């Protein structure tokens, strides 16, 4: 099913681990993963394409397709998109935490929400030097280390108060998979709900309630075992939905599929255990 596409990723050490989930290289032939439906996930992204062009199609029909050559960056996505790989995949990248771009990128995160932009518009010529270094890497295993070193070189002085507030509260959202209420987050931080929402909009691009919804959906996706019967009402309660209809509404909105359609798809095209691209994205037949 997978051809020979491989994913080599690693979680960086401090202080990058406050902002980055992993640095990675994806390479090989995509096989059944040539086209992927990517739902909203709690992540921002830097993608450096060293292989065949990658085509991205927004679920917003008014948005034209993008051909991703070179390096591209995106903030948090609140709707799905489709990504289509060429026959030869060689991509290096960074999965940032939802707030993780802020210390590295001079653009306000809200400007990168639901958008892919050429990375030189964010980092200028520094991104070209990174791409050259990655292209010249002795092995795929060396590329994540190069990315981590580049990120360390871009990390500035201690973060702003706003970003520190997001760190403290979003860590609860991350640990609880979105089940921590906004009132609880604001109370623990000693700020008003309005101030918390405004700070999130500035540092993440969405408010805490929207981010909590994305974390909850990610928890749902990781909790589905398509090899067994799924009790959707029970699963809805386990991952923090009010009831099954709310789960179904998010599932359709975020994937374009009903839960039953998703199960049928995953039974035809199963996940590969431990392969990160199968944890949220799903094949398009």
> Based on CA inertia axes, which overall geometry fits?
globular
Q: What amount of the residues lies in strands?
A: 15-25%
Mean pLDDT, to the nearest integer, reads 93
The tally of helices reads 10
Q: What pattern of helices and strands is seen along the backbone?
A: EEEEEEEEHHHHHHHHHHE
Low-pLDDT runs of 5+ residues are: none
Let me know the largest β-sheet: 9 strands, antiparallel
Radius of gyration from the CA trace? 19 Å
The counted number of beta strands is 9
> What distance separates the N and C termini?
13 Å
Fraction of residues in helix: 25-40%
Structural class, please? alpha+beta
Write structural notes for this entry.
By secondary structure, the chain is α+β, with helices and mostly antiparallel strands. Helices cover 38% and strands 21% of the residues. It contains 10 helices and 9 strands. Helix 4 packs across helix 5.
Keywords, separated by commas or semicolons:
9-stranded antiparallel sheet; alpha+beta; single chain; about 280 residues
Secondary-structure map with pairings?
Layout: E1 6-10, E2 20-28, E3 35-38, E4 44-58, E5 66-74, E6 81-84, E7 89-96, E8 116-118, H1 120-123, H2 126-135, H3 142-154, H4 161-176, H5 182-189, H6 193-203, H7 208-223, H8 232-239, H9 244-255, H10 259-268, E9 282-283
Antiparallel strand pairs: 1-2, 2-7, 3-6, 3-9, 4-5, 4-6, 4-7, 5-8
Helix pairs in contact: 4-5, 4-6
Question: How would you briefly describe this protein structure?
Answer:
The chain has helices at residues 120-123, 126-135, 142-154, 161-176, 182-189, 193-203, 208-223, 232-239, 244-255, 259-268; strands at residues 6-10, 20-28, 35-38, 44-58, 66-74, 81-84, 89-96, 116-118, 282-283.
């Amino acid at each position: 099913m997978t051809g020979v596409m491989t994913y080599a990723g690693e979680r960086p050490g401090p202080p990058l681990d406050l902002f980055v989930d992993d640095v990675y290289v994806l390479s090989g032939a995509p096989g059944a993963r040539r086209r992927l439906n990517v739902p909203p996930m709690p992540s921002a992204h830097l993608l450096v394409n060293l292989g065949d062009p990658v085509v991205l199609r927004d679920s917003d029909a008014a948005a034209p397709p993008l051909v991703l050559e070179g390096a591209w960056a995106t903030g948090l996505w609140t709707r799905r998109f489709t990504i289509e790989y060429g026959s030869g995949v060689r991509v290096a990248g960074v999965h940032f935490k939802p707030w993780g771009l802020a210390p590295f990128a001079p653009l306000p995160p809200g400007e990168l929400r639901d958008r892919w932009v050429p990375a030189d518009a964010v980092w200028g010529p520094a991104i070209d030097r990174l791409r050259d270094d990655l292209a010249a890497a002795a092995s795929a295993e060396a590329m994540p280390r190069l990315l981590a070193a580049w990120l360390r070189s871009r990390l500035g002085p201690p973060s702003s108060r706003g970003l520190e507030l997001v760190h403290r509260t979003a860590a609860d959202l991350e640990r609880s998979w979105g089940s921590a209420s906004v009132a609880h987050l604001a109370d623990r931080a000693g700020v008003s709900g309005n101030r918390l929402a405004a700070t999130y909009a500035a540092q993440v691009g969405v408010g805490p309630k929207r981010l909590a919804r994305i974390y909850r959906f990610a928890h749902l996706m990781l909790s589905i075992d398509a090899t067994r019967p799924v009790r959707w009402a029970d699963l809805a309660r386990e991952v923090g939905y009010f009831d099954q209809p709310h789960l179904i509404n998010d599932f359709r909105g975020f994937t374009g599929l009903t839960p039953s359609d998703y199960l049928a798809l995953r039974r035809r095209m199963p996940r590969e255990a431990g392969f990160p691209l199968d944890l949220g994205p799903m094949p398009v037949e």
